[in-house]
Here is the input.
Amino acid sequence: MEQTKNKVMVRRISQLEVEEFDTILKRCFFSLLSMAEDSAEAAKNQDRQLMEKVILCDDSVNRYSDLCRRIINKGLYHKKRPAPTYFIVENLEKIGDMYRDLMRYALNENVKMSIEAIRLHKEVNLFLREFYTLYYNFDLGKTNEFVTKKKNIQLQLQSLLAKSPKKEVVILFYLNAIF
Here is the structure.
């Protein structure tokens, strides 16, 4: 249910409890945001142990998203429109897979990311955090900022792809998929 650098709190979730859907979805987001931050830190410091931790954290995201999808599929989720919520949950799980695969690649290929790629990695992570904030505290005024940041990150990705070495291009493709 919670994971920090020095602590892991575990809770058994075996029953489909609709009342806990929002809590489980938030845990999915938190696990994903933790993976994002740890992946950037691991890439920056080439911390192999932290890379392995990020890879393992994908299991939590998978479990939380699986449980959320089961609740929606069983027709037990009635709060918001279920189809867009299912789409978001599905993509959170895919984003977790991309962070996992990015770290696997960086670990296996011993990739040292450039300063620009690390900065872009952090921008993509911040964009994910802003999506989380908009999802839970929707503000129409902030959507324009969100779209502007999206365009800016796309331009940065395109620019960096054009001048990066081959191994870093693979990392950038993962970041693009996450984005």
Observations:
- The chain has a mean pLDDT of 90.
- The beta strands are 2-3, 8-9.
